[in-house]
Amino acid sequence: MKREQWHVSFQSRLLREPWLKPYTDFELAAFPGRGVKKIAVICPSFVSDCLETLEEIAMEGKHEFMESGGEEFKYITCVNEHEAWLTALEGFIKNFEKGGL
Q1: Helix runs in the chain, H state only
Q2: Which of 12, 33, 61, 89 is most buried by a 10 A CB count?
Q3: Using an 8 Å Cβ cutoff, are 57 and 75 in contact?
Q4: For residues 68 and 32, is the Cβ–Cβ distance under 8 A?
Q5: pTM for the whole structure
Q6: Nearest-CA neighbor of 54 among 77, 31, 29, 73?
Q7: What is the distance, to the nearest Å, from the Cα of residue 51 to the centroid of all Cα atoms in its chain?
Q8: Is residue 100 within 8 Å of 72, Cβ to Cβ?
C-alpha cells in the first residue's frame, strides 16, 4: 500500500491526561469529512480479538464512521485461532522449552 493509503491512530487513552495521538475515535469520525468513505480497520497490537477492541472499534468505531458519512467499514479480525498462527505459536513454545527464545 502507498503511504497515503494507511493511517495509524491509538485506541486507548486516559480521560484527563494527554495520551498518544491521534485518537482512533476522533479519526474515524473525521475521515468522511476528509473524503475517506470506505475503510478497513485492523488492530495489530493483538493476536486475538478482545472485547474492549471489538466494542470500541468494530462496533462504536463503525457507528461513528458511518454516522459521519462513511459508506463502508470493514473490521479485519486478529489471527485468533487461525491454523497458521497456532502452528507458529506451537513452534515458539517448543523452541522456548528447548532453551531458545
Answers
A1: 24-30, 51-53, 62-67, 83-97
A2: 61
A3: yes
A4: yes
A5: 0.80
A6: 77
A7: 12
A8: no
Residue with cell string 473490521: 75
**Given this model, what pLDDT does residue 101 score?**
66
CA 4: distance to chain centroid?
Answer: 18
By three-state DSSP, how is residue 76 classified? strand
Q: What is the pLDDT of residues 16-69, one digit of tens each?
A: 777 889 999 999 999 999 999 999 999 888 888 889 889 999 999 999 999 999
Contact by Cβ (8 Å): 78, 47? yes
Lookup: cell for 37: 468513505
Residue with cell 459508506: 71
Cβ neighbour number for residue 8 with a 10 Å cutoff: 9
Residues in the chain: 101
